[in-house]
Write a structure and sequence with these properties.
Shape: globular
Radius of gyration: 24 Å
Number of domains: 3
CATH topology of the largest domain: FAD/NAD(P)-binding domain
Strand content: 15-25%
CATH superfamily of the largest domain: FAD/NAD(P)-binding domain
Structural class: alpha/beta
CATH class of the largest domain: Alpha Beta
Length: 493
């Protein structure tokens, strides 16, 4: 049986860790059952953004009417767009070719299952176990997969998930009509993409509002824009059954608020009802690794599982499912194992940012106002709308605009930033300065622990740490959209 220093399961953020470990002279194996590069490269954030960008351009052109410019209806070259999509996905071939040449690394294609604390066996795509290997240490980065709800008739009618869309069921043209079950980030993104390309889109959500993890005001801005973009939005709606009628897929729906039933016909159904952990397929019980009730691997602040030689990073530990978060975990794990094991860094999730690349764009870091209120904190809230700053008015936003984006800032009594939320053009870019300010405090807290200085002492010397004060005291380029996020503090109440 071949023995390694490290076996890494999963080639997304797992590949980042593997290459780092090789740099420290470790003998490694990496196990992957799909295309190399993980969800983000092969079936998620990168190929989807290749579709989002042309969709954004179409909407931006349409909104030129706000400033007196009218464009003709855009011509969609689906073949050209698709070439760009698959050009990104096919980078996995170069990734795999490169890592196959790395010294001290063996690549195993297939699905891993633990047979003991230090051993795994690997099953190929035909379902046959073809080898067993051993390691001193394991890093599990096996990710998650789309959850398909048990809807009567769904399997018979057929459907797609994001994995299937960027795989065997990629369409030869934009759909004539598309029903999306689930109005979270993936559902909202695909709704924007295909509605922009001329598809008749129906968005179906069981919760009372779309994007239910966002601020209520943010969800409402996006809902208004969706309606304006001719997307049929059905909230508080349950899918009871799917049938085939006249070669069309028919969703039998129930509005749970009104107790009314109705149907939606479509060419295709996209399931975007969230994700589930891939941990159950790994037979973790054979290694003694604990999971939570959802099936995600339990880890502490150092990414350690309850088994001392096994770590878990990325989607599979259930702590935010974003590639930038997973990469940060891989970076911290490398530091703790190889660079400074006696002074380990802890992974902190207080300032994990994310963006939803729908129309309008949404970005978020920290807590929502509801979460702050539930914790009993004293706080202030400031809202600054696009129409309140010159750059926004230049873009055509006014106080009377049907859809007017904004930044919402939530701060504590000590001026610390508890949460920041942006909805509108360039939201992901506008959010980022708040992430820097929120992380500033964490950087200082680490130094405090090393030098045994009390946080109160340091705050007395540097009261601005972790607050928005540096932003308030900075010059802001005028007229630039940075004014939107900087001037929100003038509206705190």
């Amino acid at each position: 049986m071949t023995k390694y220093d490290f076996i890494v399961i999963g080639s997304g953020c797992g590949l980042m860790f593997t290459e780092g470990a090789l740099g420290y002279g470790k003998k490694c194996a990496i196990v992957e059952n799909f295309k190399f590069g993980g969800t983000c490269l092969t079936k998620g954030c990168i190929p989807s953004k290749v579709l989002v960008y042309p969709a954004d351009l179409i909407r931006e052109a349409e909104e030129g009417e706000r400033i007196g410019i009218r464009f003709q209806k855009p011509q969609i070259d689906w073949n050209e767009i698709s070439k760009r999509v698959w050009g990104q996905i096919d980078l996995h071939e170069k990734v795999e070719a490169r890592i196959n040449k790395l010294k001290d690394l063996n690549v195993y294609k297939g699905t891993a299952q633990f047979t003991g604390p230090h051993t795994i066996k690997i099953k190929n795509n035909e379902g046959e176990f073809y080898t067993e290997i051993e390691a001193e240490n394991f890093v599990i980065a096996a990710g998650a997969h789309s959850f398909v709800p048990p809807i009567k008739g769904l399997q018979e009618a057929g459907y797609i998930t994001s994995e299937l869309f960027f795989g065997s069921k990629y369409p030869k043209r934009p759909y004539e009509s598309l029903a999306i079950i689930g109005a979270g980030p993936i559902g909202a993104e695909f709704a924007h993409i295909f509605a922009s390309f001329g598809t008749k889109v129906s968005l179906i959500e069981m919760n009372p509002r779309i994007l239910s993890t966002e601020e209520e005001e943010v969800s409402e801005v996006v809902r208004k824009q969706f309606v304006k973009d001719n997307i049929n939005v059905y909230t508080s709606t349950k899918t009871l059954q799917v049938t085939i009628e006249n070669n069309m897929k028919v969703l039998h729906l129930e509005n749970m608020t009104e107790n009314s039933k109705f149907k939606v016909e479509c060419e295709e159904i996209l399931i975007a009802s969230g994700v589930r952990s891939n941990a159950p397929s790994l037979k973790l019980e054979n290694a003694g690794v604990e999971t939570d009730k959802r099936g995600y691997i339990l880890t502490n602040e150092y990414l350690e599982t309850n088994v001392s030689h096994i770590w878990a990073i990325g989607d599979i530990n259930g702590k935010y499912q974003f590639r930038h978060k997973a990469n940060k975990e891989a970076e911290i794990l490398l530091y703790n194992m190889f660079k400074d094991p006696n002074n380990k860094k802890a992974m902190n999730y207080d300032a994990v940012p994310w963006a939803i690349f729908t129309h309008p764009q949404v970005a978020h870091v920290g807590k929502t106002e509801r979460e702050v209120k539930e914790q009993g904190c004293k706080y202030k809230v400031g809202i600054n709308r696009y129409s309140d700053v010159t750059a926004g008015r230049v873009m055509g936003f006014t106080s009377k605009s049907d859809v007017n984006g904004f930044v919402k800032l939530i701060v504590g009594e000590d001026k610390s930033i508890l949460g920041a939320h942006v909805v509108g053009p360039n939201a992901a870019i506008l959010l980022q300065p708040y992430v820097y300010m929120m992380n500033c405090n964490k950087k200082c807290e680490k130094k405090i622990k090393k030098k045994k200085v009390e946080i109160e002492q340091l705050r007395a010397m540097c009261p601005h740490l972790g607050t928005y004060t540096p932003m308030d005291e900075s010059m802001i380029i005028h007229p630039a959209m940075s004014e939107l996020t900087a001037w929100v503090t003038e509206n705190l109440e």
